[in-house]
Write a structure and sequence with these properties.
- By secondary structure, the protein is an alpha/beta fold.
- Among the domains are: 255 residues, LmbE-like (Rossmann fold), CATH 3.40.50.10320; 114 residues, Sandwich (Immunoglobulin-like), CATH 2.60.40.10; 96 residues, Rossmann fold (3-Layer(aba) Sandwich).
- Helices cover 24% and strands 27% of the residues.
- Strands 10, 12, 13, 14, 15, 16, 17 and 18 form an 8-stranded mixed β-sheet that branches. It has a 7-stranded mixed β-sheet with strand order 3-2-1-4-5-9-6, sandwiched between helices. Strands 21, 23, 26, 27 and 30 form a 5-stranded mixed β-sheet that branches.
- Helix 3 runs antiparallel to helix 7, helix 8 packs antiparallel against helix 9 and helix 9 runs antiparallel to helix 10.
- The longest helix is centred in the N-terminal third of the chain and has 18 residues.
- The two termini are 40 Å apart.
- It comes from Nitritalea halalkaliphila LW7.
- GO terms for molecular function: hydrolase activity, acting on carbon-nitrogen (but not peptide) bonds, in linear amides.
- This is LmbE family protein.
C-alpha cells in the first residue's frame, strides 16, 4: 500500500506526503462520484482527481454489495456487505478518496432500472442522494454509468438516474424540506458520465462536450503512477477476487457532459475558490501558499509554527461560517501538524471485547518529537474525566492509566445500518438523516485536549486493543461492546423428521455472572418443544441447553425465535457474528436468534457423500443434519478407486474458481461419473475458471440470469433427477427466481 496520510500513529510519514496533503488543504474543489456497488468505482480517476487535481472526492456507493458472491469465505448477505464496506475503506485510504453509502440493500442482479425500482423505493433513495449532495456540496458530480437501460446491471443504471435527478432537486428548497434543518440547498455546477474507455478507446459523440484526462502519469510526491495507485486500491476488493496489476504507459479517462452549466476547457470551469467565501479567506489562502513555498522537507517540524497560525485563522473562520468543507480542512491541517511532530496519541484497552456495565482499566499513551511548547490539558469521555495538566516534552512519552465504567445502557457495537430490521430492500435508520457514513464511530472514545504554541486543539481517540503478533508484529483491533448475555446456536436450521436429529444446542454466555432463567421458544406452543439444561460452567459463565422439537405436519416450515429469559423478566435473543480476515479489522454484528424448522419428511439414502471445498458454504453441514454421512475430500490424497466408496460427490460453491486441486483432479471425478457415480457441481462463475474440462461433454457457463421474482419456475416432474427420491415440484421453489438463476 502506498504511503499516505492514513498512516497509523506509530508510523512517521515522509515529508513529501505532508507537503502533498498540505497542497490538498489549499485546494477547495469537491467531487461526488456515484455508482451502485463496491468495486464499481474507477479507482484510477479517483486517484487522479484526489492527488493530481487535489480535489476532495467522495465515492457514493448506493449499496454495500450485500448481494454479491464471496471468493474468500462463507459470508454472504449482510456479512459480505460488512466485509465489502471495509474493503472500500481500504481502497479509499489507498487512492485518496472518501466513502459514502445510501440506505439501499443490494438485493442481487436486475436487468434494468425498472426492475431495480420495483425493489427499491425510488423516492427514499433519491432523498438520500439529495441529502448527501447538500451535505458534501460537490462542485461536479460524476456518474460511473449512463442512463441507457438494458446494457448493464439495473442497479448501475439506477445510480445514474438518481444522481441526475438529485443534481436538480438538491438546489430546490421545496424538495425534501425536512432535510433543511441540517443542510442547505446546493447547486452543483454540472454532471458528467465517466465514459467507458475499454482499451483507452473513446468515441466522442457529435455535439456532446467531453473532457480527456491524461491519467497515466507519475506523482513524484507519492512515488507512484496513478495506474499503480489504482491497482493497489482495486486489489483491496479481495472478497470479489479483484486483484489488479498496474497498467504501464499512457492512459486516459473521459468525462462526457450530461447536464448543468456548459464548460469550455475544464470540468471545473467557473468553480471559484471557497476561501473567497470566508471573511479571512484571503489571509488563509495566502498563508497556505507561503507555507508551501517555504516548506522544510528536511525538518518538517519546523513548518509547525506557520501551520498553527493557519489553523488559528481557520478556527476563527469556522466560528463565523461553520461550513462542512471548512471543518474537513481544519481536521486535515491538524493531522498534518500532528504528523509533522510525529505526535502519537493512543487510547488502549487490555482486551478486545467488553460489555455494557463493565468496569475497565485502560491506558492513554502520548508522545511527540517537537521542540515547541506542548501542554496536555485533559481527556474526557463517557465514564471518565482525566485532568492531565502537564507538559508533553520532546520524546518523553506519558502513559496514563484510566479507570472507566461503561454505562449499563452503553450501545453495543452493532453497525448502525443493521440496528433495525431491513424492510423492502432498504436499511431502516433510526434517523434517516444519519445516512452516509461508512461505519459507526468507535464504540468507546474520548476527546484529548492540548495546547500547542498557544492554540488549543481537540483530538478524538477511539479505544483499541493492541497486541503483538509473532508474525505481523503490532496489531490493533477496535474495541467491541457486546450484550451482557448472548446466545450461540449450533445451527439455524432444524429438520424435525427422522433420520435427522430434531434438536438444537444453545449456549448462553454471561459476561457478569450466570443469571437464573430459562430458555424459551417464541412462535411454538410449549408442547411442541422441550428445552433441557445439559451443562453449566461457572468458570466460563455459560449454560448449555438442548432443545428438541416435535414435527408439525400442518406447517412444513416454521420460523421461530429462541431466547433466554431471566428470573427478573429480562429477555435476551441475540447471536454474535464475528468476521476475521487479515486485510480488514475484526468485524462484529448481532442477529436475532431465529431458526427455521423444516417438518417435511425427507427420504435419506444410506450412502456416504464426499464433499470438495469451494469458496465457502454450509451445504455439507446441512446434509449432515439430514442424516447423511458427509466427508470432506482431499483429492490430492485419493485415487480413483477410493472415490467409488462414495454414493455422491458434491463440490462447494465456486470450487472451480478457487480450488486448484479440484481442477488438477477433474479427470478422476469424470472417471468416477463414467463408472456410475453422482457428481454435483454447485454454482461457479465464468471467470476465472481453473479448468474448462468439468463435464463429460463440452459445457459452458452462461451469464444469463433470471431476475424477476415472479417468474414461474417449471420442473419436469418425470425427469429422473427431479422425480425421486425426494420429488422436486414447483411449490418447492418459493424463491424460484434465485434458484432458477443458479440452476440455469
Amino acid at each position: 500500500m502506498l504511503p499516505r496520510s492514513s498512516f497509523g500513529a506509530s508510523q512517521l510519514p515522509a515529508a513529501s506526503i505532508l507537503y502533498h496533503d498540505l497542497e490538498r488543504v489549499k485546494e477547495t474543489k469537491r467531487v461526488l462520484y456515484v455508482a451502485a456497488h463496491p468495486d464499481d468505482e474507477n479507482t484510477r480517476l479517483i486517484a487522479f482527481l484526489a492527488n493530481e487535481e487535489k480535489a476532495d472526492i467522495h465515492y457514493l456507493s448506493l449499496t454495500r454489495g450485500d448481494g454479491g458472491q464471496n471468493l474468500i469465505g462463507k459470508e454472504l448477505g449482510i456479512g459480505l456487505g460488512y466485509i465489502r464496506t471495509h474493503e472500500l475503506l481500504k481502497a479509499r485510504a489507498t487512492d485518496g478518496g472518501e466513502q459514502l453509502f445510501s440506505r439501499a440493500l443490494d438485493f442481487g442482479f436486475s436487468k434494468n432500472p425498472d426492475e431495480t425500482f420495483q425493489n427499491w423505493d425510488k423516492e427514499t433513495l433519491l432523498g438520500d442522494v439529495v441529502f448527501l449532495i447538500r451535505k458534501y456540496q460537490p462542485d461536479i458530480i460524476i456518474n460511473r454509468f449512463n442512463t441507457t437501460p438494458g446494457i448493464t446491471h439495473g442497479h448501475h443504471t439506477a445510480s445514474a438516474i438518481l444522481a441526475i435527478e438529485a443534481f436538480r432537486l438538491a438546489a430546490d428548497q421545496n424538495a425534501y424540506p425536512e432535510q433543511l434543518d441540517q443542510v442547505e440547498p446546493w447547486q452543483a455546477k454540472r454532471v458528467f458520465w465517466n465514459a467507458y474507455n475499454w482499451g483507452g478507446q473513446y468515441e466522442p459523440k457529435e455535439d456532446i462536450p467531453y473532457h480527456r484526462y491524461e491519467v497515466g502519469m507519475q506523482n513524484p510526491l507519492l512515488g507512484a503512477t496513478y495506474s499503480q495507485i489504482a491497482a493497489d486500491s482495486r486489489t483491496m476488493h479481495k472478497s470479489q477476487g479483484f486483484g489488479a496489476t498496474p497498467q504501464k504507459g499512457a492512459a486516459a479517462d473521459f468525462l462526457e457532459f450530461i447536464t448543468g452549466e456548459a464548460f469550455e476547457k475544464d470540468p471545473f470551469d467557473g468553480v471559484a475558490s471557497r476561501w473567497e467565501l470566508l471573511p479571512n479567506g484571503k489571509t488563509i489562502e495566502e498563508g497556505l501558499k507561503k507555507a508551501l513555498a517555504a516548506f522544510d522537507f528536511r525538518q518538517p517540524s519546523q513548518n509547525v509554527p506557520a501551520l498553527v497560525e493557519l489553523y488559528t485563522e481557520m478556527s476563527t473562520a469556522y466560528e463565523q461560517v461553520p461550513a462542512f468543507w471548512l471543518q474537513e480542512k481544519r481536521k486535515r491541517l491538524q493531522s498534518i501538524i500532528e504528523r509533522s511532530l510525529h505526535f502519537q496519541a493512543e487510547f488502549l484497552a487490555k482486551k478486545e471485547i467488553g460489555y455494557a456495565g463493565e468496569s475497565l482499566t485502560v491506558n492513554l499513551e502520548v508522545n511527540q518529537h517537537g521542540s515547541f511548547p506542548f501542554q496536555l490539558e485533559g481527556f474526557v469521555g463517557k465514564g471518565f474525566n482525566e485532568n492531565l495538566s502537564q507538559p508533553l516534552r520532546a520524546n518523553r512519552a506519558i502513559n496514563q492509566e484510566i479507570n472507566l465504567k461503561l454505562a449499563a445502557d452503553h450501545p453495543i457495537s452493532q453497525p448502525y445500518w443493521l440496528a433495525n430490521p431491513i424492510e423492502e430492500n432498504l436499511f431502516q435508520l433510526s434517523d434517516p438523516l444519519a445516512v452516509g457514513p461508512p461505519v459507526n464511530p468507535p464504540a468507546v472514545s474520548g476527546t484529548l485536549t492540548y495546547t500547542l504554541l498557544g492554540q488549543r486543539f481537540e483530538k478524538e481517540l477511539g479505544l483499541y486493543f493492541r497486541y503483538n503478533d509473532q508474525v505481523d508484529g503490532e496489531v490493533q483491533q477496535p474495541f467491541t461492546v457486546i450484550p451482557d448475555v448472548l446466545l450461540s446456536l449450533n445451527q439455524n436450521l432444524v429438520f424435525t423428521q427422522k433420520p435427522a436429529r430434531p434438536e438444537l444446542k444453545v449456549t448462553v454466555s454471561f459476561r457478569s455472572g450466570i443469571r437464573d432463567g430459562a430458555l424459551k421458544v417464541e412462535g411454538l406452543h410449549e408442547n411442541h418443544y422441550r428445552a433441557r439444561l445439559t451443562a453449566e460452567d461457572k468458570r466460563r459463565q455459560t449454560r448449555t441447553y438442548t432443545v428438541r422439537f416435535e414435527p408439525n405436519t400442518a406447517e412444513p416450515v416454521q420460523e421461530v425465535l429462541v431466547y433466554y429469559q431471566t428470573s427478573s423478566g429480562a429477555r435476551f435473543a441475540q447471536n454474535m457474528q464475528r468476521i476475521s480476515y487479515p486485510h480488514i479489522p475484526n468485524l462484529t454484528y448481532f442477529q436475532p436468534t431465529q431458526i427455521k424448522l423444516l417438518h417435511d419428511n425427507f427420504h435419506v439414502g444410506n450412502q456416504r457423500i464426499g464433499y470438495v471445498a469451494g469458496a465457502g458454504d454450509d451445504v455439507a453441514e446441512v446434509l449432515s443434519m439430514l442424516g447423511y454421512q458427509v466427508e470432506l475430500l482431499d483429492l490430492d490424497k485419493l485415487d480413483g478407486a477410493a472415490l467409488q466408496n462414495y454414493g455422491s460427490i458434491v463440490t462447494g460453491i465456486r470450487s472451480l474458481n478457487v480450488n486448484q486441486s479440484l481442477a488438477d483432479h477433474m479427470d478422476k471425478l469424470l472417471a468416477y461419473v463414467e463408472a456410475g457415480g453422482n457428481l454435483v457441481l454447485q454454482y461457479n462463475t465464468l471467470s476465472p475458471l481453473l479448468t474448462r474440462e468439468f463435464g463429460p461433454y463440452p459445457l459452458q457457463i452462461s451469464r444469463a440470469r433470471v431476475t424477476v421474482e415472479g417468474s414461474p419456475v417449471r420442473f419436469d416432474a418425470e425427469h429422473p433427477l427431479l422425480k425421486g427420491p425426494n420429488p422436486i415440484q414447483e411449490e418447492d421453489s418459493p424463491d424460484g427466481y434465485r434458484s432458477a438463476a443458479f440452476i440455469s
